[in-house]
Hints:
Elements: E1 4-10, E2 14-23, E3 26-36, H1 40-53, E4 60-67, E5 71-72, E6 75-77, E7 84-86, H2 87-94, E8 99-103, H3 104-111, E9 120-124, E10 135-141, E11 145-151, E12 158-161, H4 173-186, H5 197-211, H6 230-239, H7 243-266, E13 272-275, H8 278-282, H9 284-287, H10 290-297, H11 303-306, E14 311-314, H12 319-330
Parallel strand pairs: 1-4, 4-8, 10-13, 13-14
Antiparallel strand pairs: 1-2, 2-3, 5-6, 6-7, 9-14, 10-11, 11-12
Amino acid sequence: MSKLVxxxxxxxxxxxxxxxxxxxxxxxxxxxxxxxxxxEKGFVRQVRAFLCQNGAESELAAICFGVAGPVxxxxxxxTNLGLxxxxxxxxxxxxxxxxxxxxxxxxxxxxxxxxxxGKLAVLQPGSNAQSAxxxxxxxxxxxxxxxxxxxxxxxxxxxxxxxxxxxxAPRNEDEVELWRYLKLRFGRVSRERLLSGPGLLNIYDWxxxxxxxxxxxxxxxxxxxSKASAAEVVAAADIGEDRLAVQALxxxxxxxxxxxxxxxxxxxxxxxxxxxxxxxxxxxxxxxKDRFLSAFRDKGRxxxxxxxxxxxxxxxxxxxxxxxxxxxxxxxx
Length: 333
């Protein structure tokens, strides 16, 4: 029987843990749990409890944790959480032969070749001839904005990225106005200030102050009178309850398409552009409309090439966990 590996996906709000074995059909999940993300001591306590509950401590061959933050020299601080982890300290803590920390989008990229068709929604089938070394891009708006590049599918040739913190580049006069609004609020405007849950609220707030009064709403809406959540903005846009919510989501989708196109041409992503994270699944009906792909392809002389790039949405909420399990499994000799 193959040895167990432990995988973790540590997000800004919740943490998923899974025990996996390498079976005849690939990685097989043995056990799973999740809990609210927390500080290091609480995290270690939760992992120990999970391992003890499954009698896995003596069987464990490798561990991989995907974390929502940049990993450097085996250390990571979750950008939107404040959790600090160290590979060597955790390896001693769990007495495991191999332990690795990776960025959560690194883990998601590792899962892409393992996802079956039912776990993906196709926005654009694409027609690029794909070589074994074709680049795939993963872009994930959620609590923050993550991204990664996968080179080929067979091996774990992955480039982690913190490109969500790169500067936002306005494309027209409205977006210049939006940039100025956010510049006054934050001092610097990154892509993540717009393409994330908080980013959608930033867009909505800009439209609300631009419109001036709650009378801009098509119908009475609590969104026009008080601070809303990103989920409430999406819900209001879905039912057409608030014109500002509709405009905010349309702006968000267009900006997401533009950044996705930027990444596709940056990495020459013949292998495809995959949208992951918590937001794309929730707004998938809006992504199927023309606004997203029009912005994705609107890259001048690269437009015809981008029409041939496959564009898909990752539907599996546990893709990062599966990718972390793949990384851990590959580390087992």
